[in-house]
Amino acid sequence: MGAMECNYIVWIPHYGLGNRIVSLVSSFLYALLNDRVLLVHVPDELTDLFCEPFPGTSWVLPSDFPVHNFQNFDKDTPQSYGNMLRDKVISNDMRFSANATFPAYAYLHLPWYYNEWDKLFFCQDAQQMLRKFPWLLLKSDHYFVPSLFLVEEYDDELRRLFPERTTVFHHLVRYLLHPSNTVWGHVTRYYHAYLAKADKRVGIQIRNLKNEPVPFETLLGQIVTCSSKEGILPSIDPRHPARPAEDDAKVKAVFTTSLDSGYSDRIRDMYYEHATTTGEIVGVYQASHEVEQRTEQQNHNIKALSEITLLSFSDVLITTACSTFGYVAQGLGGLEPLILTKPWKSKLPCRWAKSPEPCFLIPPPADVCRDHGGINKKMTQHVRQCEDENGGIKLFD
Q1: CB–CB of 366/391 below 8 Å?
Q2: SS3 state at 228
Q3: What does the alpha-carbon distance between residue 267 and residue 203 come to, in Å, rounded to a whole number?
Q4: Fold of 181-352
């Protein structure tokens, strides 16, 4: 490869919109650190969501790109970096060789179900090796930026780019991902109709995961207890019905997002039927209730991105633990949210985040790079356990 040739990384979307956004932002930072051009595979369901971020050009992968069927790339793909290492198609000794022959591209398999070979991607030896490949194809569903901070050779550049480590996602996502006119139209119409005139805006992002379900009443109780205990929403006076509002009463607008409208309905009824102890007026709103996640549908994704953006306008934000949807909203707004904890992991209904950064929920083990270049020990004080997932890591100042 000649010195003037370009190097590329192709992002492959995976899972829901929140997963896609955090992995795309991570891929963008990886491209910056390695002087690679970022190209994105945009299936039909992602069209008309975001503006083109780079003036005068397009980041969309050309339709005549010789590699196809990106959704078939997975853990068993022979061209994955991990599989090529395992099968001895490549070896660490080759990373400094001027004469070694490499395949045309390497696939980086980094979703939650990646294996021990795939996880070596986060080691310094791998980063040196991957520079031999002009094309990298990357699939992930996580915010893997915290592990990039543990690669020692990136230390100087990352310190210059981000003197405040808790703003990494905030700056990257606001630079890279501007909502399309279609999405922005949804956002502005809803905001001015329901939220703009409130004295304070509260966002509540609710996600009840199928693989870790929480009973409806339990989760609803968490939301009410948490918001009242932390002074985010006023308590009600159950002895008295709602009374006429004073002319100078403060108004709080609560914007909720959930696939299930039941939470919003119950909270709205609570404030509709009873007076608040503070005299405040509380309005509760929900833009959609899709029932099921439908990532393969463009209109579903337009609604999802609109609601993420509306959540980011909150003065105070409550999120569900381990939800990438919530991570994107808090990052866009630069907000340290109040996190609804998993009931089986904590006796407290919620806890405050100490950083707006998303959590890398399933990082490689701490010792994965012990024999592959080690880690940047200077950064371990800033890459620590997440508030909402004991096994996850995130960035702190």
Answers
A1: no
A2: helix
A3: 13
A4: Rossmann fold (3.40.50)
